[in-house]
Amino acid sequence: MQTKIEHGIMIEKSGKVLVNGVEFINMLKALKRENVVLQKMSSFLQIRQGKTVLSVKTIAGQDLPKFPTKEEKSSIKFDGAVLKDAFSKIAVAIDSNSPKYEITGGLISISNDGVKFVSTDTKRLIFVEESGSFENIEELEMILPKTAIIEIPKLFGGNIEFFYDSDSLVIENENLYFFTRLINGKYPNWKRIVPETFNSEYKFSIKNSIESVKTISMIAPEISVEMNGENVILETLEDGSSKTKGSTEFEVDFEFEEPIRVGLNTKFILDAFSVFRGDEVHFGFNESNRPFLLTEGNTKVVVMPINL
Fold it and tell me: Can you give the pTM of this predicted structure?
């Protein structure tokens, strides 16, 4: 990434120097929000403010990699608000440490019926659907690293134009240049994981669900959820070694057609609820050992249950 600053600067002698970005930023954070003087002194960049002098060692300029440019790259435009919302949702389920390299990032999949943003860590899967068409693009898939998915919405506002090829992605505006390597490889066939039909379907209050899961998660990370009559009962799992146990429940305004019991990881459920923006979530269920689907608006979350 590179940025350009044109205002509030007085240059006495032009030049360039390469330093460790993290060290340089940490030094600036340690200073007051006042003017600073930057000066190259031998093999160091000196930062002066009043009587304070800080120095960071320079790096040989030839060590700076050549940045890719947007020339000869294809381009695609996204609504900035849509991109920011989708990226914030799928970032939740990306495991950047996964041994499966392709799922250490998030997938953008474009087809004739719109765009899908997808992420999975094999224990849950999140995807966000946006309808619409893209000029001159019939099908496209790219996998962005998690860091890029987190940083792009922070750096760019308004409509965002991607310049891309098979290896890299470039975004730039008047003051900022950003590029990232794309993750090579084929993203897993995530569609086959998403259940399309259900034995049972219900709607729950997101607020009531979050409050109950948060309460029981303070006791144990893994719980059983029993849905029976007009009640949803959450209980800690008994493993023989635990010194604590607990339960909580909330009522629903309908009656379950038949009892349902499923084991859950509370973190995965709370993460799922965190990406929803509405008041109710649709719950699609088949069997206690099969993935179930939570849907709210244009966002779907597939969750793998745990064995009871």
Answer: 0.80
Give yes or no for a contact between 204 and 254, defined as CB atoms under 8 angstroms apart.
Answer: no
pLDDT computed for residue 233 by the predictor: 92
Side-chain half-sphere exposure of 121, counting CA atoms within 13 A: 15
Nearest CA to 107 out of 27, 17, 185, 211 is that of 185
> Under DSSP, is residue 155 helix (H, G, I), strand (E, B) or coil?
helix
- DSSP assignment string, 237-287: PP-SS-S---EEEEE-SS--SS-EEEEEEHHHHHHHHHT--SSEEEEEE--
- In this structure, the number of other CB atoms found within 10 A of the CB of residue 281 comes to 21
- The total number of residues written for the chain in this structure: 308
Domains and CATH numbers, the chain: 2-63 (no CATH), 74-192 (3.10.150.10), 197-303 (3.10.150.10)
Low-confidence residues of the chain: pLDDT under 50: none
Contacts made by residues 193-198, CB under 8 angstroms, sequence distance 24+: 193/120, 193/125, 193/291, 193/302, 194/125, 194/127, 194/291, 194/293, 194/300, 194/302, 195/284, 195/286, 195/290, 195/291, 195/292, 195/293, 195/302, 197/286, 198/284, 198/285, 198/286, 198/293
- Structure confidence at residue 14 (pLDDT): 76
How far apart CA 192 and CA 200 sit, in angstroms, is: 19
How far is residue 24's CA from residue 171's CA, in Å, rounded to a whole number?
24
Sign of the Cα torsion 6, 8, 11, 14 reads: negative
Query: Hey, what are 103's tokens?
Result: 């799922």
Cα–Cα–Cα angle for 257, 263, 264, rounded to 5 degrees: 110
